[in-house]
Amino acid sequence: MANVLDLRRRIRSVKNTRQITKAMKMVSAAKLRRAQERAMQARPYAQMLTNVLESLVRRTDLFNEATGDILHPLLVEREEKNVLVLVVAGDKGFAGGFNSNIGKAAQKFIDERRAQGQNLDLEPIGKKAIGFYKKRFPAAVYEHTEELYDNELSKHIENIRHREVPIEVAAEHPTLLVKTDFEEVTKLAHSIVDRYEHCEIDSVYIVFNEFKSVISQRVVVEKLLPIRKLGSHEVTALEEMTEEQKEAAGKAAQSAGVSINEPEETEIDQEAKKFGTAEVDYIFDQAPERLFRHLMPRYVTTQIFHALLESTAAEHAARMTATDAATKNAGDLIDKLSLTMNRVRQAAITKEIIEIVSGAAAL
Amino acid sequence: MADTTNNSGLLQVRLVTPDRVLLDATATAVELPSMSGYLEALYGAAPLLAELGAGEVRLHGGTAGEQIFFVAWGFVEVLPERVTILAETALHPEEIDPAEAETELKHSQELWNEAGDDQVKYDEANAVARVAEEKLASAQGKSH
């Protein structure tokens, strides 16, 4: 049996660990609160943009009357041959099953699509997802050509994609989650829309952890393109939280002072819902078709932006729950070790007394 | 809470960006950089939906006081007593970095050269150039 000194050392070390996990939990809770707030503050814009789009849809024909063509390329549905999947995971570990749950959901989706003979492009967002996919699948190869013409005044640039294997990593975005800057998301959305319009990809999905509140989260596979119905999220697969997970998350949130309820709608949210929907005949400063054309890519941007904000909140919530569990486990371990230490100490004392007593008796 | 039936002659003005609600105040008049030119909304204006280009939103009077925001692309809904501006980018003129705007302008010229006969790329390059030019003008206080 270990001696008292060893046990005391061990207890001290576990206590230190507990201190660290406790601090990590509080940090995660603070970050979660901030992330939640950010997601809240981003809601009015998304809502308003959707409203304008919806009101435009009511006023314009989505089909060209003469030719029957669909007005906007992002609404065109094609046979899904090349599928783009955005996988949003975290930047760091120590978040319980957060990263692996997303990885599992994504893998399931990839397997399904491969079984149907579709080609997949992966775009991991967040360092964990990048690390995971980079090891498994090769990066996409682009051939870059530049051609000068008009007396070498103009340049024609072309990037031709050469697909070698069915699953490739089309691009990676390691910095996107650091600040979740809207401008950066715009660039990503822009490149996706561009590829979709040029028929390089036929549909776009995003795998991420949806976050309503600490106890209401799920990993979803959402269809981004083609857009079938505005304002609604087309979820193709989802993974709900189990009751156990909910309970653990709820407890962690309570002890860290984070609300487990969904944030309430504020006045500005309600105002946002009314945006562009007043019962009046608006004067359109520009042709609705033109507005529509400019709005559609932005709609995709806000969808991705929102997914990233929710995922960030979910990551912090997962880390908070995980570190809370670690703190609890450390506490249990300390209790157990203290008990053993006391027993060992008592045994030593008893042994000494017996020795003294039996020594005295022998005299 | 904005009283939607107020008769104060003041417009309830909101400026919403992807990140947050930047401004919620009242004003007597708002100048807006619509795609087809500047327009000014006053109390009692006819309902209007317009796309905003790059330029300055200027507020006059009310609790907002004299305020200027540089916006690059957005939407505005004008109702008789309310103006809601949806802006993709919104900055105070003093927040603009002229050096960065210069770089953007140069970048747009490159895009312009690379566009070739692609109309879409051409339009894009023009849009980038316009934003950069307006940004510079706004930073130097020379906008319209």
TrEMBL record, chain A:
One of its GO terms (molecular function) is proton-transporting ATP synthase activity, rotational mechanism. It is a peripheral membrane protein. It is found in: Cell membrane; Membrane; Thylakoid. Keywords: ATP synthesis, Cell membrane, CF(1), Hydrogen ion transport, Ion transport, Membrane, Transport. GO terms for biological process: proton motive force-driven plasma membrane ATP synthesis. InterPro entries: ATP_synth_F1_ATPase_gsu, ATP_synth_F1_gsu, ATP_synth_F1_gsu_CS. Its main location: membrane. One of its GO terms (cellular component) is proton-transporting ATP synthase complex. It holds the Pfam family ATP-synt. Belongs to the ATPase gamma chain family. PANTHER family: ATP SYNTHASE GAMMA CHAIN, ATP SYNTHASE SUBUNIT GAMMA, MITOCHONDRIAL. Produces ATP from ADP in the presence of a proton gradient across the membrane. The gamma chain is believed to be important in regulating ATPase activity and the flow of protons through the CF(0) complex. F-type ATPases have 2 components, CF(1) - the catalytic core - and CF(0) - the membrane proton channel. CF(1) has five subunits: alpha(3), beta(3), gamma(1), delta(1), epsilon(1). CF(0) has three main subunits: a, b and c. This is ATP synthase gamma chain. It comes from Granulicella mallensis. The gene is atpG.
From TrEMBL, chain B:
Transmembrane segments: none annotated. The keyword Glycosyltransferase does not apply. Keywords: ATP synthesis, Cell membrane, CF(1), Hydrogen ion transport, Ion transport, Membrane, Transport. It is a peripheral membrane protein. One of its GO terms (molecular function) is proton-transporting ATP synthase activity, rotational mechanism. The keyword Ion transport applies. It comes from the Bacteria. Residues 11-90 form the ATP synthase F1 complex delta/epsilon subunit N-terminal domain. GO terms for cellular component: endomembrane system; plasma membrane; proton-transporting ATP synthase complex. Belongs to the ATPase epsilon chain family. NCBIfam families: ATP_synt_epsi (TIGR01216). This is ATP synthase epsilon chain. The gene is atpC.
